[in-house]
TrEMBL record:
<dbReference type="InterPro" id="IPR050950">
    <property type="entry name" value="HTH-type_LysR_regulators"/>
</dbReference>
<feature type="domain" description="HTH lysR-type">
    <location>
        <begin position="1"/>
        <end position="59"/>
    </location>
</feature>
<comment type="similarity">
    <text>Belongs to the LysR transcriptional regulatory family.</text>
</comment>
<dbReference type="Pfam" id="PF03466">
    <property type="entry name" value="LysR_substrate"/>
</dbReference>
<dbReference type="InterPro" id="IPR036388">
    <property type="entry name" value="WH-like_DNA-bd_sf"/>
</dbReference>
<dbReference type="InterPro" id="IPR005119">
    <property type="entry name" value="LysR_subst-bd"/>
</dbReference>
<dbReference type="GO" id="GO:0003677">
    <property type="term" value="F:DNA binding"/>
</dbReference>
<dbReference type="InterPro" id="IPR036390">
    <property type="entry name" value="WH_DNA-bd_sf"/>
</dbReference>
<dbReference type="InterPro" id="IPR000847">
    <property type="entry name" value="LysR_HTH_N"/>
</dbReference>
<dbReference type="GO" id="GO:0003700">
    <property type="term" value="F:DNA-binding transcription factor activity"/>
</dbReference>
<protein>
    <submittedName>
        <fullName>Transcriptional regulator</fullName>
    </submittedName>
</protein>
<keyword id="KW-0805">Transcription regulation</keyword>
<keyword id="KW-0804">Transcription</keyword>
<dbReference type="GO" id="GO:0005829">
    <property type="term" value="C:cytosol"/>
</dbReference>
<keyword id="KW-0238">DNA-binding</keyword>
<dbReference type="Pfam" id="PF00126">
    <property type="entry name" value="HTH_1"/>
</dbReference>
Amino acid sequence: MNISDLQSFIAVYHLRSISSAALELNMTQAALSKRMKALQCDLQIQLINTENRRQLVITEAGDLFYQYAKEAILRYDKLQLDLNDYRKMNTGVIKLGIIPVLAQYGITQLIGQFKQKHPSFNFHIIENEGVNLLSSLTEGKIDASILRDTQSNLLQDSLYHKIPLVNDELVVVVPASHPLTRKAKLKPQDLANLELVTLLKGSGVYEPVITRFKSCGIEPHVFFESAHIETIIEMINHSQRATFLFKKSAEPFVTPAFEMRSFSPPIYSQQQFVYPKATRLTSIGEFAKQLRQLFQYKITSEQENI
């Protein structure tokens, strides 16, 4: 039994579903089922009952185990944070994780502006998918990260600061000649029979899209997954396919050959600057404050130029 086993059980406990928990944990349903069986075998007691395929049931032992697992995770997270602070107290470098599409939000320029005003700050910037940055943050491998709220929501508010930076809307992108452009807004039912192209699992795009489809009882036909927006746009060009992107991320790539449509109801997400409350690096708090001010200034300037 390890920390990953505890985290997996907590997800199953919260969602009461192996399939939903597997999606949240970015693993296959079969792998999660195998992990739960191994955990129960290790403990020599049944924690969950899956005989009823419609409703997963937590046993009394499962309820008790959840309380201890939750406390163990809290203690483990605090241990990692405390040890990591001791490891890096003398480095003077902030390790900052960012998701790949942040270039479209001007984050690299904002960091450059901040460094000009505060030359004593040093950064090691690491670009990765949100789900990987989330793991790096909880394991203490990075000091802070800019994440979508779809990922930061998995972190406990009692342990992490989550500073809002900018909101964005998840939209459907189709070729300009696509029949769906006749509609102002789209529902999963409109897309049910289409081949869909999407960013990878863990991107912060895949998860809310799949959740919206499944909430309507529709299994989406995902034809192609990629980590690159350019590839995704090319895959839907001259076709009847559709893809999903956040509006600000998509704008540099959406030429007149493509059109964007909102979901009905719309799906919004927020970029957040996330860092541990227990950090000993006071520079992170100062950077978070300045970064938010720079984002707000950028947003105000863009609105004035419209």
